[in-house]
């Protein structure tokens, strides 16, 4: 185990290996590749929330000078409903195809109908206006509560609710229902001295990555086709695209460009299959880039929810029962993160009696995609708000009430496993002892505390380390680096090999170079790809020892690896990595280490945040005065980038709590598809974000790593929500807490 | 289609290009001059990823027509370092881990250079407001602000300008 181990490289705040390219503008992102003869693709999108396409005539567009190809749904090979794993979770192939190009019916404002490739972007835009489309407008439904009603307009006449005791005979917008239970919920509430229940609303929000979706592709009828795109998982882009277009995996090379943010939103495909169709039909390389409006209207946002939570507690603060009913919008096709919502909602607490029911519901909005700890922030927001209300009613400090009930080693979770060592109590104590928590508040200021949980995942990673003749190493990984993970791979390889970090160059290779790698998501990369790095490094060391043993005519077991040097324990002799690599040609050829794993044992991750908010009583405007994000990293490989994950997650959560929401017109048209009106936090909105790293090692990782990427977005909704409630003297049940909503609540508040 | 001939200076190099009348300076930089360091995040002047200087004035290149570059001097991310020697601002961004995905970084560095030319000793609040036009979705800005303040201090202390 790692606790006592002294590290030479891990824990250093080294300069990231891809940093130079990224501060000089040399790094190439999704839209940065152009090819000779390349043409431009553009998409025609639905102006309606729900409509039947009664006519789609592309003949005038086809004849427009400069138009090279047009793609519609008919250009997909026949696809049928079939679940397959790609990106984050299972996808239905038919839904995927119908989301990428509508099949006779549009299901949301922005839904792609067809695409045109032309010599220039301007010609493609002109040609879009020549497409003759007629619609029969259908009634639309935009809210999960409305969509669940018996008489709601139906999006799909072939969607039947899964997870009911009996197979329904009528189609429904409710795609799935699930429940989780433990203990006796009725007895739990009967034992309670105080019970609080509330329903909460969270809006549709977007990941808001600054780089729009983009790709450049070249289809080859006989050779290997190529897709260059910004994605969190190029192996899954290959899987989805090849499946949709019925191509062999080996005939489709996908190159992951640098990626300008994803947060879960770049774990599926939109443009890639369409551009390959356009390339096939035109015989040209095709580039497609979404504009910002398209990103908001037609890529996958995060679910809006209506979540009801009821919690009972004893006078001393002990929770006796927890119950939730969680309703998630999936967008136009099934597959919201309702499941993880149900599984995370009460996990920070060691509770005997719990019951959770969840619904996955389609509405006339874009199909949701993963967004950082998908499903967890919405559910845990509801639970944490209710817990803070109980603490207030009982006069117990919000950290103390959590300490009293906190999940710990041995806690039986509602969703399955018993927890191993976890760091929730350590995070609560770190927050309680922080200067921030002890600091006094001024007038019109309020404080909120909330905990958060996310599972983290492992999964498949494949890594090779090629030792070069000068003793340096090229570390070949297949996990797109979305926030500095090359730096952590470099440090872990250096630690294992005991050669200096700057002698190791990590690269993210394309799908032809490595075996399959899972998508960068689920906070898996430093954990799982890191384990593959360690395994590959151990493979290198094993071979280095064998080479040295051959030189000394001893067995490999008689060779130790110390400080990057082979040491002969059976006699005299030391050979450095540099010497062994320089002589590799004479001892059996070059040295390559491999690590192919399907990592188990990802470490559950807990966080606790403290938010101080000041409210302007005249306008309802809120300001974040001070913020602390504390989280268990297991082991922070590169502390700066771990802090960065905490800070970035916290600020996305602050935006979710205070500003961000999709605003739809009565007709179901998105009214704020731009950064001016969908307002993500600016530098001027924020204070510094204090990041506290707690380290309770994960026993299943050689260095103790847990994932750190996602949990940080879970607590802010309730931490900020509670701080605003306390500052303004209002009851908070709806997000975002934008000035008009806060002002209205203050004017009608009886609290 | 008639194209416009533009003679301009980019990072000190005298350059010419042909553009359509509707094309933006950002289009010209990226598609005609192959300078893809300047990024497009929104196309509407809201995100700052396309920040460049036009005769030393900080602008969003997506809001400037390419033809307006005629006779002007443009500064882009590609001209911030001196060959392989990083500018202090770039070095401080790396030391403070002030980037995660890096897509906003070129715009932020160009904006920071403009800030520190105007105001070599900005307060944290002045820095936050000056950079409010550069959206970053990854970092929460904490490490960016620290990098900028540190770069300002180093530059005032006689480091590289």
Walk me through the topology.
The complex is a heterodimer of chains A (751) and B (161).
Chain A: H1 19-23, E1 39-45, E2 51-57, H2 59-63, E3 67-71, E4 83-85, E5 90-92, H3 93-100, E6 105-106, E7 112-118, H4 121-128, E8 132-137, H5 144-147, E9 174-182, H6 185-190, E10 194-202, E11 214-218, E12 225-229, H7 234-245, E13 252-256, H8 271-282, E14 286-289, H9 292-298, E15 305-313, E16 319-331, H10 338-344, E17 354-362, H11 376-394, H12 398-405, H13 424-432, H14 435-438, E18 445-454, E19 459-467, E20 473-477, H15 485-497, E21 504-508, H16 525-552, E22 559-562, E23 565-568, E24 574-576, H17 577-582, E25 592-599, E26 605-615, E27 622-632, H18 639-658, E28 689-694, H19 716-728, H20 739-747
Parallel strand pairs in A: 1-14, 12-13, 16-17, 20-21, 27-28
Antiparallel strand pairs in A: 1-7, 2-6, 2-8, 3-7, 4-5, 9-17, 10-15, 11-12, 11-14, 15-16, 18-26, 19-20, 19-25, 22-23, 23-24, 26-27
Helix pairs in contact in A: 10-11, 11-19, 12-13, 15-16, 18-19
Chain B: E1 4-10, E2 13-19, H1 25-32, E3 51-54, E4 57-60, E5 73-75, H2 88-95, H3 105-118, H4 124-130, H5 142-156
Parallel strand pairs in B: 1-5
Antiparallel strand pairs in B: 1-2, 3-4, 3-5
Helix pairs in contact in B: 2-5
- Mind summarizing the main beta sheet of chain A? 7 strands, mixed
The geometry of chain A reads as globular
Note poorly predicted spans of chain A: none
Helix amount of chain B, in percent? 25-40%
Written account of the structure:
The complex is a heterodimer of chains A (751) and B (161). Chain A is of the alpha+beta class and 751 residues long. Chain A has 20 helices and 28 strands. In chain A, the strands form seven sheets. A seven-stranded mixed sheet of chain A has the order 3-7-1-14-11-12-13. In chain A, strands 9-17-16-15-10 form a five-stranded mixed sheet. The longest helix of chain A has 28 residues, at 525-552. By secondary structure, chain B is of the alpha+beta class. Helices cover 32% and strands 16% of the residues of chain B. Chain B has helices at residues 25-32, 88-95, 105-118, 124-130, 142-156, and strands spanning 4-10, 13-19, 51-54, 57-60, 73-75. In chain B, strands 2-1-5-3-4 form a five-stranded mixed sheet, with helices on both faces. In chain B, strand 1 (4-10) and strand 2 (13-19) form a beta hairpin. In chain B, helix 2 (88-95) packs across helix 5. The mean pLDDT of chain B is 96. At the A-B interface, helix 1 and helix 18 of A face helix 2, helix 3, helix 4 and helix 5 of B.
